[in-house]
Amino acid sequence: MQLINFTMWSPSGGGGAFFSELLDDNYSKDYCLNYDNYRNPITNEYAGSPNTYRYEHYSLEKEYNMIPKFTEKSILLGKRYSPIDFFKYEVKCPDTYIIDCKGHEEYVEDLIFVKKIIGGTTHHTNPYFITDMMKDLKQPETKKEFISWKKYAQMIQEISPYINEWSIFAQKYFTVPTDRYDWDKDKFLMHLKHEYDKKYYSPFIKGQEMIDVEPLKEYTNVHVVKYGDLMNGKDTGTAFDDYKKELHIYFENNTRILDEFEMQCL
Known about the structure:
- By secondary structure, this protein is an alpha/beta fold.
- It is 39% helix and 12% strand.
- It folds into two domains: 2-105 and 205-265, no CATH class; 114-198, no CATH class.
- The protein is built from ten helices and nine strands.
- Strands 5-6-2-8-9 form a five-stranded parallel beta sheet. A two-stranded parallel ribbon has the order 1-7.
- It is globular and about 60 Å long.
- The chain starts with a strand and ends with a helix.
- The model has no long low-confidence stretch (mean pLDDT 95).
C-alpha cells in the first residue's frame, strides 16, 4: 500500500483544513474550492492543503471508483467519518492528528455559522440540493430578474462583509415570499438570528462528538490534540508546537471576525 504524508481529522469548523495547510506548509489559493471547503480570506476560511483528499464515505467512494491515486505527499482530510477503512485497504499513514474540540463547542459552532452557513458558498453542493432549496421560489417578470437579485445582493453587502449572497443561508432566504424589489433588512436579520439559534448545523450531536480513536492505533500513530491547547499556545508534543505564532494569528483573526459578526448581525 502507498505511504502517505499524514491524516488530519477535525469536526466541521474545527480548523482541520487550515491545520493541514500549516503542517504541510502548502496553502490554498484565495476562493478555491476543495469539496466542501472554500478558501475565503474575508472569513479566514481555508480549503486545505492542495495535497489533501477530502474523504467521506469510503465504501461509496470505492464502489464508484472515486478514490484517487495516492502519493507520499497525500493527506487524508476528514471531518465526519473515521479514516480506518483507508488505512485497512488503501494507504499506510505514519501520523494521524485528531482535533478534540471539547470545551469549545459553542466557539466552533459560531465559526461554522460564519464560515460555512452565511460566509461560504453553495458551489460545493449539487443540482439536486439547489433544486430542492429553490422549489418554492416565485419567478418575477423576466426583465426584472436582474433588478431583484441586484437589490438583494446590495442589501446583503450593506449588512456585513461576512455574508456571501451565494451562501446556503442567503440562497435559502432568497426563496422567502416577500417584496422582491424592496428587500427588508430587519426581516433578513430576524431570519438570520433564528437560523443562528437553531444550530442545526452543529457537528456536536450527542454521542457523535468524536470518531473512535482506539481502532486507529493499530495502523497509525494517533495524536489527539486539544483545540484549546492550540488556541492558547500550549505545548502539544506534536508538530503543531513549531507553529505557535501562525496558530495565534489564526485564532486571533477568528475571534475578531466573530466579534464583528455579532455586532453587525445579532
